[in-house]
Amino acid sequence: MIRLFEEHQVRRTTELSSTLWDFSQVTDGKNTPVGKVTVPSCWESYPGFEAYRGQGLYERNFEADGDMRIVFKGVSHTAKVFVDDKFVCEHYNAFTQFEAVVKNLPSGVHKLSVLVDNSFSEASALHVENDYQSYGGISRGVMIEQLPKHYIKQLHFTPVCKDDTWYAQLELVIASLDGKPWKGKVSVSLKGCDDVNENVLYTQSCSTGAGELVLKSDLIACENAKPWAPEHPTLYMLSAQLEDEDGKVIDDLTDRVGFREVRTQGKDILLNGKKLQIKGFCRHEDHPQFGCALPLSAIMQDLQLARDMGANSIRTSHYPNDELFLDLCDELGILVWEENHARGLSEEQMKNPNFERQCEACIREMIAAHYNHPSIYIWGILNECASDTAYGRECYKTQLELIKSLDVTRPRSFSSCRFKTDICFDLVDVVSYNIYPKWYHNTPVAMYLDDLYKWVQTTGGAGKPFLITEVGAGAIYGYRTPAKVKWSEEYQVLALEEQLGAILSYKDCSGVYIWQFCDVRVTNDWWNTRPRTMNNKGIVDEYRRPKLSYETVKRIFGSVDTYRK
């Protein structure tokens, strides 16, 4: 399953991830067949490959005729794509969408091969031994589309509210495969998800030659539009059609959008003019049965559990998430902090010559693919990296400026752990900190938080919204003791009560993300600081079994509104 709705009615599409693929282990260039596997999947779920790090080859046949676009939602973490044994493209990063366009395929059956590598090396600046697992495999959906010579490559929707009236601004990219002069027309319509009638928003004659044509509309009034918000997540279907010179519709593209506005004002984050109070979880894409390739039902269960505990937001730590997750958040009214891929990298690691290029590619691909999701209210970068050094600051500055060049409608932030040494808060719209009083040190939470916030007011972050983006304590599921010592479920309850109570009552804090939703697997070199080779700070364990703290979080989150007074 690729999305919760059909993106095309005219363009012919086939989901390649709906049947079995042939999988082979690749060692020193030699292929050893393993057998049939499902896609999406992680090879850590295959018998004998539970801890495999290396290369694997996925292959299957498909029927095609003409110009084809193969879309990969995620391959972990390097992919080389071949069609009929001919190299087509290469992509780095497990967590962003990429595509391969293959022209003029003869009618018939063709072979698709994907060489996947989850090795750690100097060529990979972002996938390193870390406090979460880097899986291997085709971990998200795959789609093949038959393209006309001219097609709609991108459709971005920006909602704007002026004088209590909603407006839409559109940006389309029309691509040409043959580079020949061509004239046509594009039209864009909008309708409610349950409506039959469409409202035409925009029509524009267009002509293309080589390359791509970018079309931008003026503001278009949508007077009857209803806003998207957590309490009423109203969604609309936005559909574009491309006609040729004779008026024949040759291509289309549909996406789901919402009318909402996010901005900062002084110390507040405003959604549709209301002050947000974030009650959230950090969540890894991780499951003992599926690795990072969670099926829709498992993703939905996670969101149901989070909502049952009173959460209104999820932070996608520490990478862009599967678009099915975002579709569900759009529909359920769950706010999303989405961030690029980097966690806990030192200045030395950030000096890897591939680091900045790979980070910026992740940002570009993340925003291009996920721009239309109303649930995403903030973009984040570089969790707990070297924001306390001059070199690190240049990286933060470059990436935050890149985000602003791609999207001016959402605030930008990063999660810092550099207590009183961070030098990058002047670069962001929201100041965010990861803190662990009562876990890594026993400082009273209220005192620690107040001291930290007052220091931030002496920096470039003064007067800006302030979030706690990680707080929590570890607990081994089933470890119960009246001594209430660390790693017990009882101690996690005590720590969270003090942590959440202090943070959610602090008048200058816009909310909190608990680290973390569920226990997750970590890479093997973290064994000496992570019992079970797991990060055990989840409110549910890896199998989604609630710990004692579940009811504590539910009680505390349930007593706090989504909007601040």
Provide key terms for this protein:
alpha+beta; 8-stranded parallel beta sheet; 565 residues; Jelly Rolls; Immunoglobulin-like; globular
Overall SS class: alpha+beta
How many domains would you count in the coordinates? 3
Could you say what the CATH architecture of the largest domain is? Answer: Alpha-Beta Barrel
Can you count the helices?
8
What is the number of E strands?
Answer: 33
How far apart the termini lie comes to 41 Å
CATH superfamily of the largest domain: Glycosidases
The CATH C-level name of the largest domain is: Alpha Beta
* CATH topology name of the largest domain: TIM Barrel
The portion of residues assigned to helices is: 10-25%
Are there runs of 5+ residues with pLDDT below 50, and where? none
What integer value in Å does the Rg equal?
A: 24 Å
Q: Largest sheet, if any?
A: 8 strands, antiparallel
Q: What fraction strand? A: 35-45%
Mean pLDDT: 97
Gross morphology is globular
Description of the molecule:
This protein is α+β, with helices and mostly antiparallel strands and 565 residues long. It folds into three domains: 13-147, Sandwich (Jelly Rolls), CATH 2.60.120; 150-257, Immunoglobulins (Immunoglobulin-like), CATH 2.60.40; 273-558, Alpha-Beta Barrel (TIM Barrel). Helices cover 17% and strands 37% of the residues. It is built from eight helices and 33 strands. Strands 1, 2, 3, 4, 6, 7, 8 and 10 form an eight-stranded antiparallel β-sheet that branches. An eight-stranded parallel β-sheet has the order 30-29-28-27-26-25-24-31, covered by helices on one side. Helix 1 (296-308) packs parallel to helix 2 (323-332), helix 4 runs parallel beside helix 5 and helix 7 (489-504) runs parallel beside helix 8. The longest helix is centred in the C-terminal third of the chain and has 17 residues, at 390-406. It is globular, with a radius of gyration of 24 Å.
